[in-house]
Amino acid sequence: MKDIKNTLSEKAEEIAKEMNLEIFEINIKGSKRRKTIEIIIDDLKDFVSIETCANFSRKIEPWCEEQDFPFGSYDLIISSPGLDRPLRSKEDFIRFKGKLAKIITKNKVENRNSFTGYIKKIENDELIIEEKSSKKSLFKIEMDNISRANLEIDF
Fold this sequence. Notes:
Residues 87-155 form the Ribosome maturation factor RimP C-terminal domain. The chain has 155 residues and is an alpha+beta fold.
């Protein structure tokens, strides 16, 4: 399965590059009889539209059909990371500066492990976040203390 995923990743990366996109994640899951191939694409300059997903699908689907996947039938799903996308790198935090995010820390910061606030900046490998509820509280969270983070939908 690892070889299939590597081959699929190479082709997906090639198509993504042609379309000025990045591959966010590739998953192959399901039963022995039917698999789901999920390719999550990202646009570093904008959010991914349904049209972009459809165009990517039209480009990779013929290639997938030519492959002799050992699992036979499969469903192909092309999607975006979503509005509540995970934030996985320093670059993600820089890209989404000013956006609302939820941060879960490995170790407590000021007696807490969970923060919801606006990404202010990255400074010396620390994330500075302004708490949504008070807008006066700034928290500094070391990047390597972040267990997980994702954007939140701001209403």
